[in-house]
């Protein structure tokens, strides 16, 4: 057995260096605290990084999702098909405009929305599909876009966890109508709070720029030609994001190294199944969370065992979105006064339910060493192979 490290191997870590600290101090000293130089520089860098025509910065990923839906005209009573195995932001953003989240099951190998289930869920009220590249694993965008094109649906890619995830070399967020990212404090690239919307369409981009800023005329001033929000970011967060873009390769390549090593060492381990990538898909390596297949082993059991080995591990989404009280009690939502929401207690997604109750997250942070991973893998294997535990 490998040696237990003195310090806990963390499941979440924040990779902030001296440069980020310096740049935030510079911003504060300059007293230019609202969107400015850093925000604009970040946008250019992020557009270049993702290969998109435009990137618009917003205050967080949730507002980016909301803004994307608004820009695409998704409103009361419209149905948006999405996955229940994700952070609640995806479905909540849909409800912000009175639209209806329609939850369909995920593929048991990729943990991502199953295109066949999307097909089955389409009605004459369906307006959009919101795939989430969960844990940073790209969804089956080829099939999703075929379905969207067949039925004239918009696609909002939730790439909150998918910085640097690609399909055939093309960055996610460029396949759908719009792509949405989060720079929340624990994501692959961070700003504390932060979000961005990718677009490749001039008119949509202009609309998004205005919507995030109270529906202002693009020339600024106090002319408001449409209702909009204040989803502007602070220059302090943008300064961090700007430096993170300069450090992106250093941060992300270490994560990819971790992912490659984990997948190699645990690919055919009895007792668990790891998240599968489709051919030509590359992972952002945001989260590595195997699913237990061995009977009588619970995530809690393995998590407690790993803790003794100084390894942090956790369950992320044990409650699916449609099982959350905010959906089982949807009649309390303000839009329920005018929108007929489905009875979410009747929704059943067996694959998502299995994954939710059987996954455990292993450390995947950019500060891990190969030695840490060998220790983690040794411990997982020992636990799974041992009859006595
Ligand atoms: C899949 C997913 N979508 C959306 C969001 C929302 O982003 P934010 O926290 O920046 O609002 C998050 C996470 O934070 C997320 O993980």
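Sequence proposed for the structure above (389 residues):
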């Amino acid at each position: 057995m490998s040696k237990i490290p003195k310090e806990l191997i963390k499941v979440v870590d924040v990779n902030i260096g001296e440069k980020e600290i310096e740049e935030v101090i510079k911003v504060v000293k300059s007293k230019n605290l609202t969107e400015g130089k850093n925000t604009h520089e970040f946008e250019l860098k992020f557009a270049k990084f993702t290969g998109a025509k435009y990137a618009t910065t917003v205050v967080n990923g949730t507002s980016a999702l909301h803004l994307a839906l608004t820009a695409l005209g998704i409103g009361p009573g419209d149905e948006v098909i999405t996955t229940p195995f994700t952070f609640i932001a995806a479905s909540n953003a849909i409800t912000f405009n009175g639209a209806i989240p329609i939850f369909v099951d995920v593929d048991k190998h990729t943990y991502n929305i199953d295109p066949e289930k999307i097909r089955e869920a389409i009605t004459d009220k369906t307006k959009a599909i919101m795939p989430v590249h969960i844990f940073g694993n790209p969804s089956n965008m080829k099939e999703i876009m075929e379905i969207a094109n067949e039925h004239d649906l918009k696609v909002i890619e939730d790439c909150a966890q998918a910085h640097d995830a690609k399909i055939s070399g093309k960055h996610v967020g460029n396949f759908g109508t719009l792509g949405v990212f989060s720079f929340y404090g624990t994501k692959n690239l961070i700003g504390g709070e932060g979000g961005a919307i990718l677009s490749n369409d001039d008119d949509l981009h202009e609309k998004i720029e205005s919507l995030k800023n109270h529906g202002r005329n693009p020339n600024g001033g106090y002319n408001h030609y449409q209702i909009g929000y204040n989803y502007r970011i602070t220059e302090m967060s943008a300064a961090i994001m700007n430096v993170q873009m300069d450090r992106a390769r250093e941060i992300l390549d270490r994560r990819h190294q971790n992912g490659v090593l984990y997948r190699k060492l645990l690919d055919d381990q009895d007792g668990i199944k790891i998240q599968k990538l489709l051919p030509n898909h590359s992972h952002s390596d945001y989260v590595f969370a195997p699913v237990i297949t061995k009977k009588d082993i619970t995530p809690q059991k393995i998590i407690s065992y790993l803790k003794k080995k100084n390894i942090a591990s956790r369950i992320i989404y044990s409650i699916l979105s449609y099982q959350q009280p905010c959906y089982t009690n949807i009649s309390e939502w303000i839009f329920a006064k005018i929108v007929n929401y489905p009875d979410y207690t009747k929704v059943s997604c067996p694959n998502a339910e299995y994954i939710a109750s059987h996954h455990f997250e292993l450390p995947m942070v950019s500060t891990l060493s190969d030695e840490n991973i060998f220790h983690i893998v040794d411990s997982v294997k020992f636990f799974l192979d041992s009859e006595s535990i």
